[in-house]
Amino acid sequence: MKTNLTLIGMPGAGKSTVGIILAKTLSIGFIDTDILIQINQQKSLQEIIDASDYLNLRRIEKNEICKLNVTNHVIATGGSAAYSEKAMRHLQTLSTLVFLHVDYEEIIRRIKNFETRGIAKADNQSFRELFAERQILYRKYADTIITCSALDQEEVSVQIAATFRSQQ
After folding, report:
1. How do the domains of the chain map onto residue ranges?
2. Which of 8, 23, 40, 132 could be 30's S-S partner, Cβ–Cβ 3.0 to 4.6 Å?
3. pLDDT tens per residue across span 142-158
4. 4-167: CATH superfamily
5. Is 89 left (phi over 0), alpha (psi -120 to 50) or beta?
């Protein structure tokens, strides 16, 4: 039985915040793969992109995810984790994948720091194009989809916890 929950979704979907609340609610550990990257690289996500490119950030992200070997954790992934089939397959062996779906307009409302947030996207790609491209990937890997646009983080956590407990 899988004892981990992995949260996937767009930047601004609430993966980190919901993950912390969920870990507390379920009395299990919490890992944020963006923080792991920053600790191990000694740079912010944006600094990694600025020093190389977004594809390097995705490569680093894949490597960090593939090193994970935990039980009883909530794992919050970076928004671009879904680009790596290897990373996603690894997460699927460890956990139940939950896609925090937030509609485009709500993501735009939530994100104020597009230029400095460290979003892994091509220079010529619009955020709307990135959003559309990633929706397909998130749905491909998700075991469960939670529609979050009209919910606060507590409500999202309660829904996920109820689903997770019912599977135990």
Report:
1. 4-167
2. 23
3. 999 999 989 999 999 99
4. P-loop containing nucleotide triphosphate hydrolases (3.40.50.300)
5. alpha
